[in-house]
Amino acid sequence: HHRFKELNYIIDEDYRHILNENLYNNTEGNFNFEVKTSIYDSSQDFYKWLFISGNRKYDEQSKDFQVSGIIQLITQQKKSQAEVNKLSHAVRDSSTSIIITDINRKIIWVNDSVTKMTGYTREEIIGNTPKMFQYAGTDRSTIETIKSNLRNLKKFRVEIENQSKSGQTYWLELYIQPIINEIGKPEGYMAIEIDIS
After folding, report:
1. I need a surface site. Which of 59, 74, 98, 145 has the fewest CB within 10 A?
2. Strands, DSSP E only, in the chain?
3. Burial profile 110-124: b = 16 or more Cβ within 10 angstroms, e = fewer
């Protein structure tokens, strides 16, 4: 118990209530939580984070709650998570249109710029393929170039004319690249679209 109390001195003050709520409430049970410390890790360029798990048990002899558990350093995971959150905000709020598809070219994610540019709702787009944006006037040879590069998992750039839901046409500079997972297998594609109308 005494050793856990010493944690208060190194926990970031915004997170101390989490520590206190979990360790020092007067009920028996398990706990697990994450807290930020006030210790800066210069090698990670990030504050140290702890994962604390264990349990509280009432001890008849001492007439007090006994707290036992383990403390793990999780700085690297929290830093990675923070970077992913920053990137996801940047991508979601970008004025550039971004489309992510699965390996079968079915759209699984779009940012708000896609819905603004095309006039389609997210619900209308998800599950469809980017072919939904093409129309009779879209250049056939450009479509073939796209298909060929996708099949060969190439990173490439093309210009293409598409059509919005309202029938308005627009020109895009289109950058497409395969998304490769951690074991080197392709699992989808990402398209970055810039309106050059």
Report:
1. 59
2. 29-41, 46-59, 64-73, 97-102, 107-110, 156-163, 169-180, 186-195
3. bbebbbebbebeeee
Q: Which long-range contacts (CB under 8 A, 24 or more apart) does 192-196 make?
A: 192/96, 192/97, 192/98, 193/96, 193/97, 193/98, 193/99, 193/114, 193/117, 194/96, 194/97, 195/97, 195/117, 195/170, 195/171, 196/159, 196/171, 196/172
Q: Which 3 state secondary structure label does DSSP give 54?
A: strand
Closest CA to 75 of 112, 35, 109: 35
Measure the CA–CA gap between 150 and 179, rounded to whole angstroms.
11
Distance CA(43)–CA(18), nearest Å, equals: 26
> In this structure, are residues 189 and 175 in contact, taking their beta carbons and an 8 Å threshold?
no
CA distance 34 to 53: 9
> Are residues 135 and 142 in contact, defined by beta-carbon separation less than 8 angstroms?
no
Contact 57, 28 (CB under 8 A): yes
Summarize pLDDT for 63-106 with one digit per residue, the tens.
888 888 899 999 999 998 888 888 777 777 778 999 999 999 99
